[in-house]
Design a protein that fits this description.
CATH class of the largest domain: Alpha Beta
CATH topology of the largest domain: FAD/NAD(P)-binding domain
CATH superfamily of the largest domain: FAD/NAD(P)-binding domain
Strand content: 15-25%
Number of strands: 22
Helix content: 25-40%
Shape: globular
Largest sheet: 7 strands, mixed
Strand order of the largest sheet: 7-6-18-19-20-15-21
Radius of gyration: 23 Å
Bound molecules: flavin-adenine dinucleotide
Distance between the termini: 41 Å
């Protein structure tokens, strides 16, 4: 009798686990997905034939294994494995609502990253560079203050480094931190940087520092890190990335297709509602078919969970210590709303005359570091992939708002949310309300696991779940880690490796997002 793995969640982690199990073991994977689509946070939605990506997902990893894995599923356009050779030729092809089913559509594009910070109505390079333009934008006095405050922080760093504010100030100086980091970060987390642990910075900003940024800038002057691997480049600074022709969801749709082809099951609208813990193992998972309102108990030899840790523990039946329940219940998240705006054109509005002049933005995304607006980031989907946009004569934007489930923003009706987005894009002067053709509003709960709440006691949860030898926590919310797709996938691959070798090594799974391992230095 073959063994069964119940995989909770059909996001990048869950689908990677399913495909890897099929490829390297005889274990039968059943993926339970509570929504009606695959891809999780990396899904792609459509609006009137336009594709919308929640967040703008770069496909880039320092792990060769992940890079090759992606390219095996969706080859790079024009590469020997792909059906299309000329990007320009196939560009004419897509019609409204094309989902990329034809062979020449099942490809990834190689994209150049352009992103900037909007601050005080001006655009600054992201990452900030010490260019004449930056000096002009900031003014001489402020540039000097920035330099002095950086020097001061280098000589007298804050010790011990406890909060995120300490982390930023130590690496960038107080002035640069206040100008470019504070407001955006506080928008994302809904908390002052003084109330977030320094851990967050270590994970998000990795090893980035002024010294590394300057070294990178100098190196780029001499020679370009020309390939896609960009091994020598810190993740925040990478300049090229891969992107599925029709958005990130295309990768996960294609993975689902392969899983089913190899005999795996992906059950949409099936929610894991309880897990039975008995004798140190998870014996069964109860799944609710949401469409039919029917429960089904699935016996499990292995369980791989990418569902939020808070829910996982709350839904376990069996001997769960009270302290574990309390820490899990105290885990917090940040949530996310994207407003897709379809426009006839962009226009830069002159604040003095209120006149609008047509305008083009080269960016993939722009950080909005402006006071008085809620919008945190702006995506220009046309620049991610022209195939995301049904009519190339329109501009397809995503305005991103960070919020918490149940707060004022989250509770706004879609019309009110869209009206707010339109007011704010006018306020920052990038488009005019009269050019809006249509909009859509998408809510993404638990977009970011919080490094606050009961997070500091997360070790209590690990102490409980690690010894359960057929349970594997994988992915982003599944591990309560700020994992990107590649880390989520690597954790799934490690879990499958444990199943294949018959020995659970929890340490290896938890190590996937520790930078020293991740760099894979050869
Ligand atoms: C704004 C933003 C920008 C990002 N940009 C990038 C980027 O540029 N590059 C990159 O690589 N990554 C990026 N990421 C991260 C990326 O989205 C995640 O790493 C990835 O989606 C995590 O995959 P996952 O499978 O672990 O989790 P998820 O994507 O969260 O998938 C988990 C799945 O489990 C399902 N589920 C939950 N509970 C249950 C249950 N009880 N029963 C059944 N199903 C359940 C959910 O519906 C979901 O489909 C970004 C994220 C955000 C929020």
């Amino acid at each position: 009798m073959s063994q069964t793995a119940i995989i909770i969640g059909a996001g990048p982690a869950g689908l990677t686990a399913a495909l890897e199990l099929l490829r390297s073991t005889s274990v039968h994977p059943i993926v339970l997905e509570s929504t009606d689509h695959v891809g999780g946070i990396a899904a792609t939605f459509t609006h009137q034939g336009n594709h919308i990506d929640l967040g703008g997902h770069r496909f880039f990893s320092k792990s060769d294994r992940v890079m090759q894995w992606w390219q095996e599923i969706l080859p790079i356009e024009g590469s020997p494995g792909s059906a299309s050779v000329s990007g320009e030729k196939s560009r004419e092809k897509p019609e409204n609502g094309d989902t990329g089913d034809a062979a020449e559509d099942r490809v990834m594009l190689l994209r150049e990253r352009i992103s900037r910070i909007m601050h005080g109505g001006k655009f600054f390079d992201y990452p900030i560079s010490l260019s004449p333009k930056t000096v002009m934008n900031l003014g001489l006095l402020r540039t000097a203050r920035t330099g002095i405050s950086y020097l001061y922080s280098s000589l007298f760093p804050i010790r011990p480094e406890e909060t995120l504010e300490d982390f930023f100030v130590n690496r960038f100086g107080a002035e640069l931190y206040r100008t470019f980091f504070k407001e955006y970060t506080e928008k994302v987390w809904g908390l002052p940087c003084t109330e977030i642990q320094a851990d967050w910075g270590a994970q998000r900003v990795k090893e980035l520092s002024i010294r590394k940024a300057v070294a990178h800038a100098l190196r780029s002057l001499i020679r370009k890190d020309a390939g896609i691997s960009q091994k020598e480049t810190e993740t925040s600074l990478i300049e090229r990335f891969l992107y599925p022709k029709y958005g990130p969801g295309q990768m996960w749709e294609e993975t689902r297709r392969r899983v089913c082809e190899l005999g795996g099951e992906v059950l949409l609208e099936h929610e894991a509602v309880s897990l039975d813990l008995e004798g140190g193992k998870i014996r069964a998972v109860d799944s609710l078919d949401r469409a039919k309102s029917v429960h089904r108990t699935l016996q499990a030899d292995f369980v791989l969970s990418s569902m939020p840790v808070r829910h996982l523990i709350a839904r376990m039946r069996g001997p769960i210590p009270e302290q574990v329940r309390q820490v899990a219940a105290g885990l917090e998240y940040r949530d996310f709303i994207t407003v897709g705006l379809l426009l006839t054109r962009l226009a830069r509005i002159d604040p003095a005359t209120q006149k609008a002049a047509p305008y083009l933005l080269p960016d993939n995304w722009i950080y909005i570091q402006e006071p008085g607006v809620h919008v945190g980031r702006l995506q220009v989907f046309n620049n991610w992939s022209p195939y995301l946009v049904a009519d190339p004569n329109t501009v397809w934007l995503g305005l991103e708002f960070f919020c918490s489930e149940g707060d004022k923003l989250w509770m706004l009706e879609d019309e009110a949310m869209a009206a707010l987005a339109i007011r704010e894009i006018e306020k920052i002067g990038l488009a005019s309300a009269e050019d809006v053709l249509s909009w859509t509003v998408i809510h993404q709960p638990k977009a970011y696991p919080g490094y606050f709440g009961s997070y500091e006691n997360f070790h209590v949860i690990r102490g409980f779940v690690d010894p359960i030898d057929n349970l594997f926590l994988i992915g982003r919310n599944g591990m309560h880690r700020y994992n990107n797709q590649d880390h989520s996938m690597l954790s799934a691959m490690e879990a499958v490796n444990c199943i294949a070798t018959g020995k659970k090594d929890a340490e290896r799974i938890w190590a996937t997002n520790a930078e020293q391992d991740y760099h894979e230095e050869k």
